[in-house]
Amino acid sequence: MTPHSFLPGESDSRVTLETLDSYRTLWHSHREALPCNCPFVLPPWVQSWWTVFGAGGERLIFSVRRGQRVIGMAPLMLQGDTVRFLGDPRLSDYFDCIVEPGRERLFFQALLTHLSAMGMRRVFLGPSPPDSSVMTFFGQNKPFGGMDWFLTEDETFSRVRLPRSWDEFLSGLHGKQRHEVRRKFRRLHETGSVQFRKVSEVERVPQAMDTFLHLFTMNRANKATFMTGPTVQFFRTLAVALAEEGLLRLFFLEVNGHPVASVFCVDHEGTRYLYNNGYDSRWQQMSVGTLSKLMSLQDAMVEGCEGYNFLKGAESYKARLGGHPIPLSCVHAALS
What we know:
2 domains
């Protein structure tokens, strides 16, 4: 860790450049004080992405301290002439900084002032949801110190608040959809022995990912094109890193002992995130893709999750299953 600057008038506020290791250490030691509802900026995710795709970039992970107290962290990088979040929107649905609630103004003023002092002139932050620290600050504050910014809209993501039981969840669906869900489950169980298996142990992840990646590339040509080379390496690296932190939930729907669908989920801060899924196209008529997602949602309630996040995309099934669309926004800042 290398301290870089003290803010004018804030002699006890300090911006520090962190390494990947120190970022992880700070996250472990400050998780209660610095809650984060964005798994895509957590150390296991950031480190996995950087390991595979970071060549040629400049990593800029900062912490901001007030006295001895860490009030926030920002996993950033320099790409061209623009400072942006460390990662890729194609692999990370949205981004945020990890900031102590109520300290957003002090954190971002310190961070932006520091970036300006470093000679940075362009900052792009996002996409970020309305309840993120990014939007809490930029959506409520005016430009300061010669800095200016504007917001643009991005895609939406969908999430649903989970009730306490599966019956309650079904009762919250529209009558036609509730009937369809029950009909699909009944048809599936009529085909043979059905099992829904969960993998979260580190030692089981590599082999389980073989199956997941096979299913992922079976059902759509664009998925097969997407999942090649470095992307495969990233998924494998990420799955192990998440499992090491107890965040991975990798599910397999099996019929008569054969895997027909898989769901890659992340559990964090009481929410299950549906990151990706795949299924055997030969079982498409049995709706195994939708049913495996529903089973992961059902399991989330059993594990005590309070929310289920379908993440980005406007697929119609998300609304049918009770998901509510949430807008994402991007911050474009010019530093003087």
